[in-house]
């Protein structure tokens, strides 16, 4: 019996508690639709399964070497550029490397800490709901900004709401300590994460690369990794 339960646990990915209300709503809607007309019930069932899938929260294996910056989100690396961080981060008004990870509605939306450190700043900014893939979404969209202070520097992490996202959820408070890969928030239904690291950090991902939250290494603050090259194919 124990072996069966363990096998089931490995097959079924855990669901984050933030998803339970939405799953219950989808189930209720499915029952109502099925009562009205059975084919609609099947549509509701598919929607319910998708909601369960969206709020999945699978375990991750996180690299813990000092200096590594791991992806805070599942998705596609859609921008690597140099930019001055948003004023609300209260970081020096000088260029930093910005790595953006875009999450579509099929990606896992639980966000994880990119580094180990202490949260020194959290600021929510209301805004628009433009396509999160657009560069101007960093300044115009609803967002929640965090500053994490490591042993050697500070980095910025910005949760940005997307075209269909309407809620950014934060699990942490100013002053809390985070370990690399630890869950710190969630964005509902399509969005983007911007990570600001010092210009001296070595970027270890390429445009278009798929990132896995808590596992994919985005950059090395100590620049100890060998140089990497990428191709799209």
UniProtKB/TrEMBL annotation:
Catalytic site: 191 (schiff-base intermediate with substrate)
Keywords: Cell membrane, Decarboxylase, Lipid biosynthesis, Lipid metabolism, Lyase, Membrane, Phospholipid biosynthesis, Phospholipid metabolism, Pyruvate, Transmembrane, Transmembrane helix, Zymogen
The record's free-text note on cofactor binding: Binds 1 pyruvoyl group covalently per subunit.
One GO MF term: phosphatidylserine decarboxylase activity
Enzymatic reactions: a 1,2-diacyl-sn-glycero-3-phospho-L-serine + H(+) = a 1,2-diacyl-sn-glycero-3-phosphoethanolamine + CO2
Free-text description of this protein's post-translational modifications in UniProt: Is synthesized initially as an inactive proenzyme. Formation of the active enzyme involves a self-maturation process in which the active site pyruvoyl group is generated from an internal serine residue via an autocatalytic post-translational modification. Two non-identical subunits are generated from the proenzyme in this reaction, and the pyruvate is formed at the N-terminus of the alpha chain, which is derived from the carboxyl end of the proenzyme.
Family from the record: Belongs to the phosphatidylserine decarboxylase family. PSD-A subfamily.
Classification via PANTHER family: ARCHAETIDYLSERINE DECARBOXYLASE PROENZYME-RELATED
Subunit field text: Heterodimer of a large membrane-associated beta subunit and a small pyruvoyl-containing alpha subunit.
UniProt enzyme class: lyase
Protein localization: Cell membrane
Cofactors demanded by this protein: pyruvate
Membrane topology recorded in Swiss-Prot or TrEMBL: Peripheral membrane protein
Coiled coil regions in record: none
Site label Cleavage (non-hydrolytic), positions: 190-191
Role of this protein: Catalyzes the formation of phosphatidylethanolamine (PtdEtn) from phosphatidylserine (PtdSer).
Keyword Transmembrane helix: yes
Enzyme Commission identifier(s): 4.1.1.65
Superkingdom, natural source: Bacteria
Classification of source organism: Bacteria, Pseudomonadati, Pseudomonadota, Alphaproteobacteria, Hyphomicrobiales
GO process terms (BP): phosphatidylethanolamine biosynthetic process
Name the record gives this protein: Phosphatidylserine decarboxylase proenzyme
InterPro entries found in the cross-reference section: PS_Dcarbxylase, PSD-A
